[in-house]
Design a protein that fits this description.
With 559 residues, the protein is α+β, with helices and mostly antiparallel strands. 31% of the residues lie in helices and 23% in strands. Strand 3 and strand 4 form a beta hairpin.
Length: 559
């Protein structure tokens, strides 16, 4: 008996010691398992690298809180909470809270004004429940603070013509990128530099102001002219090589051979570039005259051979597409004038035709008098980023363009040239445009083959152009007449991030997450049925169990 007791005590002691050791190990070793098919809770290595740099508290306030949220946006709320829990589990310096900024009716209007002043615009939603439709206002934003610096993080990915369910699905897929991008602005100091080319008739600063404002959170930005190339070519190239990216936004004056050679050698030295070019001189603004028309003519920037050697060619033609943004014109005179939108085929809407992270899950981009592009066999790898819709045609130049064309009946049969290429990414090793040619100037240590680098060429300079209204610079991609926001700014920000991003942050955009929704119509139709099933079925099953139990009990003990 004593021997048996000692054996039991020994087992208890071993069990207690084992539990203590297991608890100690579990405190040191921590592991979470993602069993979802789409790996939605597995953070991208680039996001983890950003979280690793948070060595002091980051406080995140999320404004997705409220009792009147539609069911679709509760999905976004839940996914946001779960993502931030993953962030916090990985780095304890992350803390977050969900706030309803308009909960207090007494200060509701004041709160809305304060949030609007910070650029946190509200969203009005249709809430369909119990067969009834009502309106709700939410603020789909988050604010992240780190070391006295605060950034705003958009939580909704707007898409033209999307339903609320599609809107939430797109937003959920972009959540990790949105938060990783916002936190990157907080923890990563600016390192890279961008040169905005001037001197060849590029867009004025006020017309690219919104885009520059969007990317200056990431990079140092400065203007750069090539005027000194004629007399100080070597020193100009040396200064240009100090920049990681060159942007040329809609030049209208031809480049000299000396300027081209300096830009060519900048590329050979590994410099990256973003070109927004046009081969046809025509602007929508030039149509707003007494005649309401103008002539589109070819424009020679002396860059055809330059890009041909790299692998692309922009043709002096105009893309016209049935799937396009409307033009808004005024009719009537004085106080009786009214604005009306008309179909305008010269503003084609372009969509990414690949799963490349620059264009993945991107809204339509608006172009104006875009030119078709061809890809040419060369040493570079080419990725077509943007194309017009399949119902497109090509028009030659010179050509008269008139506002009266809005009255023309559109025939789909003549829009038969298929999708036209409007933006191309070039990557890899470039061959110099001046290889085996007489050099226009003498430079130190010229190269015929580049270091690995990247370049994006877009066949329309208006893609980067923002409007300037009475109240100043307007948001890039926003059409004040229709209220639509196109994807121009997001595309161009992604383009700069991709060209300069060495952390792979842009690749988070490719993450696919399947979001399941309930059908609101079926909910309204079958609500009573499922309520009865959920309430009555358990009672019926319990009654059946009780009857069987009593029957068996009586049968057993009756004997």
């Amino acid at each position: 008996m004593k021997k048996l007791l000692n054996k039991s005590i020994k087992h208890i002691v071993i069990l207690v010691v084992g539990l203590i050791l297991l608890n100690a190990v579990s405190q040191k070793v921590y592991k979470r398992f993602d069993l979802t098919t789409d790996q939605r809770y597995t953070l991208n290595p680039s996001a983890l690298a950003i979280l690793d740099q948070a060595d002091s508290p980051i406080i995140i306030d999320v404004f997705l809180e409220g009792e009147d949220f539609p069911s679709e946006f509760r999905k976004l709320q839940l996914e946001t909470r779960q993502l931030l829990e993953e962030f916090k589990a990985y780095n304890s310096n992350i803390s977050f809270s969900f706030i309803n900024p308009i909960e207090d009716e007494a200060t509701r209007d004041q709160s809305i004004q304060q949030l609007n002043a910070r650029g946190l615009t509200p969203m009005q939603l249709n809430v369909k429940e119990n067969g009834k439709t009502s309106q709700a206002v939410i603020f789909p934003w988050a604010l992240a603070s780190f070391n006295d610096t605060t950034v705003k993080i958009p939580l909704v990915k707007n898409t033209i013509g999307a339903t609320q369910q599609q809107l939430v699905t797109n937003s959920v897929q972009q959540l990790e990128y949105a938060f990783a991008d916002g936190l990157s602005k907080l923890v990563n100091p600016k390192r890279r530099k961008i040169a905005v080319l001037k001197g060849n008739g590029q867009l004025e600063n006020k017309y690219i102001a919104d885009y520059i404002k969007s990317i200056r959170d990431y990079y140092f930005i400065a203007p750069f002219t090539l005027d000194s190339v004629a007399n100080h070519a070597t020193s100009t190239l040396k200064k240009l090589n100090e920049y990681d990216l060159v942007i040329s936004a809609k030049p209208t004056e031809a480049f000299t051979e000396k300027e081209k050679f300096v830009l060519d050698q900048y590329t050979m030295n590994g410099g990256k570039s973003l070109w927004l070019l046009e081969q046809v001189a025509m602007d929508k603004d030039s149509l707003y005259n007494d005649l309401g028309k103008n002539v589109a003519i070819p424009m020679d920037l002396n860059l055809t051979d330059f890009f041909f050697k790299y692998g692309v060619r922009i043709n002096p033609l105009i893309v016209s597409s049935m799937y396009s943004a409307p033009i808004t014109l005024a009719s009537g005179e004085g106080s009786n004038s009214q604005f009306q939108s008309y179909p305008w085929t010269y503003s084609p809407l372009a969509k990414g035709n690949s799963r490349h992270p620059i264009v993945h899950n991107l809204d339509f981009l608006k172009f104006d008098f875009a030119n078709p592009m061809d890809t040419i066999k060369s040493s570079t790898k080419k990725t077509i980023l943007l194309q017009s819709a399949p119902l497109s045609k090509i028009e030659g130049t010179p050509r008269e363009i008139s506002l009266d064309m809005v009255n023309n009946q559109l025939d789909p049969k003549i829009f038969n040239k298929g999708p036209q290429t409007l933006a191309v990414l070039l990557e890899g090793t470039f061959t110099s445009a001046y290889k085996n040619r007489v050099k226009p100037i003498t430079l130190d240590a010229t190269k015929d083959t580049s270091n690995p680098t990247k370049m994006i060429v877009i066949s329309d300079g208006d893609v980067i152009k923002n409007d300037v209204g009475r109240n100043g610079v307007e948001e890039l991609g926003f059409d004040k007449y229709t209220g639509q926001t196109f994807g121009n700014k997001e595309f161009l920000v992604n383009a700069a991030n991709y060209l300069l991003d060495d952390t792979g942050l842009i690749n988070i955009r490719s993450k696919e997450i399947a979001v399941a929704f309930l059908n609101p119509e079926k909910i309204a139709l079958q609500k009573t049925k499922w309520q009865l099933i959920n309430i009555l079925l358990p009672l019926v099953l319990l009654a059946i169990f009780g009857f069987i139990f009593n029957y068996l009990r009586k049968k057993k003990y009756a004997k």
